[in-house]
């Protein structure tokens, strides 16, 4: 039983409020900047309350581009690219990892544990270490400036394979024997029993991998040369680092707000499944 101590309760609430302010204040300032015009953002002091250009700024970046005079693509194109990449990476990682874990746990074949540990060792190799040979393979296959080039090199996941393997090892052997006695094939057992039991783990991994795919910067930067395949993270970074010009901070902040929106929505709508997938012990 947790003891009720008013001082500790107040202190914990104060810490939470301070943490919330520290996290939320930059987001609030980004939103405020996205509602003003450029002249206001270049004057001191920086406004702390929303302005009257919200619809104008968001409409411009969504349908005309960051700076229509330079011929930049509208941000809805880059948002679509990021969405396709994030969904492709998340779904691909989950599909490959769960099938690989199923094969390692429920099939007996030579060197299966060697293959598993070979997959697990790749956790020690970050993307930056293998990015040059990966780029060479993608370029030789003609996948530059394509969705397949953005997605396929990133869909293998040792972490997800390990998590699914550990979950499958916790499934009672009696369940496997009962399915075998009933005449269920391995894929029938996987599809009708293991997959429904893994739904909370799948939901938690989907949230993590969607955000991972959405926030990718280095890999899309390397393999895309056409603006029609830029991701939104790339676009925001490129427009913030202009040379011999002052960035249009109001439009840039509007782009940043739009870039933050999809991951936030995924977390908000899947937060219950995400938490259950992380903390639930009896699945």
Automatic annotation (TrEMBL):
The chain crosses the membrane at residues 7-31, 83-107, 114-135, 147-168, 189-212, 251-270. The keyword Cytoplasm does not apply. It is a multi-pass membrane protein. InterPro entries: MetI-like, MetI-like_sf. One of its GO terms (cellular component) is plasma membrane. Residues 79-270 form the ABC transmembrane type-1 domain. Its main location: membrane. Signal peptide: none annotated. It is found in: Cell inner membrane; Cell membrane. Keywords: Cell inner membrane, Cell membrane, Membrane, Transmembrane, Transmembrane helix, Transport. One of its GO terms (biological process) is transmembrane transport. Gene3D superfamilies: MetI-like. Belongs to the binding-protein-dependent transport system permease family. PANTHER family: ABC TRANSPORTER PERMEASE PROTEIN MG189-RELATED-RELATED, SN-GLYCEROL-3-PHOSPHATE TRANSPORT SYSTEM PERMEASE PROTEIN UGPE. The complex is composed of two ATP-binding proteins (UgpC), two transmembrane proteins (UgpA and UgpE) and a solute-binding protein (UgpB). Part of the ABC transporter complex UgpBAEC involved in sn-glycerol-3-phosphate (G3P) import. Probably responsible for the translocation of the substrate across the membrane. This is sn-glycerol-3-phosphate transport system permease protein UgpE. It comes from Reyranella soli. The gene is ugpEc.
């Amino acid at each position: 039983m947790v003891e009720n101590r008013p001082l500790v309760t107040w202190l914990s609430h104060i810490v939470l409020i301070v943490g919330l302010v520290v996290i939320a204040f930059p987001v609030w300032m980004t939103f405020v900047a996205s509602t003003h015009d450029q002249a206001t953002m270049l004057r001191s002091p920086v406004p702390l309350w929303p302005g009257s250009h919200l619809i104008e700024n968001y409409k411009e970046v969504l349908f005309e581009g960051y700076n229509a005079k330079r011929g930049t693509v509208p941000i809805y194109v880059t948002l679509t690219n990021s969405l396709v990449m994030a969904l492709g990476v998340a779904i691909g990682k989950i599909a490959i990892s769960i099938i690989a874990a199923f094969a390692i746990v429920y099939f007996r074949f030579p060197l299966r544990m060697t293959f598993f540990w070979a997959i697990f060792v790749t956790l020690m190799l970050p993307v930056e270490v293998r990015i040059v040979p990966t780029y060479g393979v993608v370029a030789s296959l003609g996948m530059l400036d394509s969705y397949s080039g953005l997605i396929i090199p990133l869909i293998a996941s040792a972490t997800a394979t390990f998590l699914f393997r550990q979950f499958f090892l916790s499934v009672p052997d009696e369940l496997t024997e009962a399915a075998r006695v009933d005449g269920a094939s391995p894929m029938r057992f996987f599809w009708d029993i293991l997959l429904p039991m893994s739904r909370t783990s799948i939901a938690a991994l989907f949230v993590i991998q969607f955000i991972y795919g959405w926030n990718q910067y280095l890999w899309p930067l390397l393999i895309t040369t056409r603006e029609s395949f830029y991701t939104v993270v790339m676009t925001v970074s490129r427009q913030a680092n202009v040379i011999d010009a002052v960035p249009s901070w109001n439009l840039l902040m509007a782009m940043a707000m739009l870039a933050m929106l999809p991951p936030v929505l995924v977390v908000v709508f899947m937060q219950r499944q995400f938490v259950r997938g992380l903390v639930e012990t009896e699945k």
